[in-house]
Amino acid sequence: SIAILLYLSRKFQTPDHWYPSDLQKRARVDEYLSWQHTSIRAKGSEVFLSRLMLPVLIGQPLPPEKVKGITQGLNFVLKQFEEKFLQDKAFIAGTEVSLADLVALVELMQPVGAGYNLFEERPKLAEWRSRVEAAVGPKLFEEAHQGILKAKYM
């Protein structure tokens, strides 16, 4: 999916903020896109699976200690995300939204769709989410995430 996003941003010459031509900003986007596969994506998917999909498939919830351990793994990478990538910036690459922000938010909405609101106790993360939503527009954000947010009602 990352390769497709990069291809589309180049092919259709999207606005520069999505995949910046400035090498330092682009390196920041690339750094996040490389890091997220084994961190936020992996841990967020584990939370989604353990809290929602596996209980549906096996007909019962996983043991609470198992779910707690998986959730702690996600919390660890969320702390890294805030400290390493967000820092005190509006967006991952600086002052404008980028592909890195879109990919990050999509991955973080999976646990939310499974009933784990990871934004609740993280004001920095919640503020960043609000900025990304505003940048893409609330209607488009809602449309893009409506399926995952309804998953918890399966």
UniProtKB/TrEMBL annotation:
Domain GST C-terminal intervals: 22-154
Places the protein is found: Cytoplasm
Catalytic activity annotation: RX + glutathione = an S-substituted glutathione + a halide anion + H(+)
A single BP term in Gene Ontology: glutathione metabolic process
Major location category of this protein: cytoplasm
Gene Ontology molecular function terms on file: glutathione transferase activity
Tagged with keyword Transferase: yes
GO cellular component: cytoplasm
Pfam families found in the cross-reference section: GST_C
Keywords: Cytoplasm, Transferase
Record EC number: 2.5.1.18
Subunit structure: Homodimer.
Family (UniProt): Belongs to the GST superfamily. Theta family.
Name of this chain's protein: glutathione transferase
Organism: Nothoprocta pentlandii
Gene for this chain: Gstt1_1
